[in-house]
């Protein structure tokens, strides 16, 4: 399979799969409905929308949506809407869970619930996002933008494996993973540099598979082949990283928000560690970002059919 | 004074000041000589260059430099060249110190030397840089890109004061300082959020002056007025930050390198805490970046004359 290198290619690829069903908790938000309506038109998703039925219908008709693509359920209580959608996904009535206007903490509480939630027992919850920018020739997968503040070694390994798995779904057979730091110097400091050396050795030993890994590397050495020449650094990634793994949430978060704000980057991301894809986006995300997220979730849900 | 909003305006402003003298340790590097030759041509700096005299003269003539703007000293030993330049600056023979091909650790060791170095006793060493990007309407000052891995409260306050002082030199009377985090939520976590609340209260009490401060804020809320409306957050910075203070070196470093790599950003920065401006740039920095740095150092050195 030819690798998917952009969100446009992603949406296109999905046309070959049967549509997925997505349950949305409190859908009555213009950006959410805009994204949902577009995904339904493209034909790769159908939706179960919960919330205020009247508002949802109004927004759907503003977007000229085909109402038969949507099943709308009146559930006005926020928690009730989330729990209803989680159950729907858990029981197989939907393939994907999506957050609408719901408060993120309440939403995640329901996803994380040990008995009724959607987490795979014993797994690390994390977040992987794909960035598309005019100034990079392919998608750049980054982790963790949103969940683990300061990942320890085992959490870093989980993050890496999640990102690699996502790359495989995008048709990137041997993704190049850069372990990001401020410099390329190996050693005990900062603490992430020691974890990075261990991860590289685990890759050498075959304990981590399916990817090429190098780090510590800074952003230049990870993404710019020329900088390797200038700094005379030899890296198996050749400045062509597919994945950037960050040492902290705050570094990953500032990195991607900087690129969205100043480099025209677009983003799509998913919670990791769940049995089914779960879409959690900030209410401030654009319609385009929400659409990209839906497409990403459909690709991840399509695995077993493909 | 009208604020300086770009590096072009900065170079222009310097024409009103008498030229500064810059001592360069091991200058025989093409990017360094390129930048140095341009600054001399613009008329705001003169140079004392140390290193291999023959190589330096060759590079200068390649750049059609006026040799009378340069005093060249044959000093081939790296440490000797650094120590010689530090002494020259210390004794007033030069106004500014600049690193050429010298190893950064060796260079900083000489600057930090308690007896013969250039640090102001008892001050925090840090680094402030100015970023210029086509997608922001003014310069964005960031700290700390390079020196303090995980600043504590007192280091954060020092970083803030350095950045504010630099903004004042740029004619920004009341710079807007954003204390950067992944979200705007106040509280004990991450640890930087607690420091940020304390800093804001210190500003309220007049313990920190000359700036408007808010945090924690994410990159969007700090630099994009629209995102304040969308997220219904009220901030005295109004999404128009002049300064971004980061919780860790690795977050600041990834942020700026991302913007240089993907958003066409240019950078100029200076070590802070020294008695005279000290220019330390990576060997891989472009000629343009080195030129911007020289201009920045000349502005900072010009304070007492202006």
Strand order of the biggest β-sheet of chain A: 8-7-9-6-5-10
- Oligomer state of the chains in this structure: homodimer
Q: Write the H/E string of chain A, N to C.
A: HEHEHEHEHEEHEHEHHEHEEH
**Globular, elongated, flat, extended or rod-shaped: what is the shape of chain A?**
globular
- CATH fold call of the largest domain in chain A: Rossmann fold
Work out the count of structural domains of chain A: 2
Number of E strands of chain A = 11
Low-confidence stretches of chain A: none
CATH class of the largest domain in chain A: Alpha Beta
The major β-sheet of chain A equals:
6 strands, mixed
Q: Write down the Rg of chain A.
A: 20 Å
Largest inter-chain interface? A-B, 42 and 42 residues
- What separation lies between the terminal Cα atoms of chain A? 11 Å
Q: Which bin fits the share of residues in helices of chain A?
A: 40-55%
Helix/strand/pairing category of chain A: alpha/beta
CATH architecture of the largest domain in chain A: 3-Layer(aba) Sandwich
Write structural notes for this entry:
2 copies of one chain form a homodimer. The first copy, chain A, has 306 residues and is α/β, with parallel strands linked by helices. Chain A folds into 2 domains: 7-119 and 274-305, Rossmann fold; 126-262, 3-Layer(aba) Sandwich (Isopropylmalate Dehydrogenase). Chain A is 41% helix and 18% strand. Chain A has helices spanning 7-14, 30-42, 53-62, 78-90, 104-112, 153-169, 191-204, 219-223, 225-231, 249-262, 287-301; strands at 20-25, 45-51, 70-74, 96-99, 126-132, 140-143, 176-180, 212-217, 243-245, 266-272, 278-279. Chain A has a 6-stranded mixed β-sheet with strand order 8-7-9-6-5-10, with helices on both faces. The longest helix of chain A is centred in the middle third of the chain and has 17 residues, at 153-169. The model of chain A has no long low-confidence stretch (mean pLDDT 95). Chains A and B meet through helix 8, helix 9 and helix 10 of A and helix 8, helix 9 and helix 10 of B.
